[in-house]
């Protein structure tokens, strides 16, 4: 019975929100953004060099892992039965 009364009271109370009005709010403009400095091409080349090193390292690591797993017998690719003389 108490829960029914509490439920009705909670339904009538509006939800409270902890938001406040900020009096000195200034909307951001394009002038507030930082201005890029330096050559974009140099920065782009540095990032591409780093990304290419990561790509090559990942490909080499994956290839070495698959080769090791194949040679050690941990991975069987299932090429089918061997045909002919061995």
TrEMBL record:
Residue intervals of the Deltamethrin resistance protein prag01 domain: 31-81
Keyword Membrane: yes
Coiled coil feature spans: none
Keyword vocabulary terms for this entry: Membrane, Transmembrane, Transmembrane helix
Transmembrane portions of the chain: 51-69
Entries under Pfam families matching the protein: Deltameth_res
Protein's name according to its UniProt entry: Deltamethrin resistance protein prag01 domain-containing protein
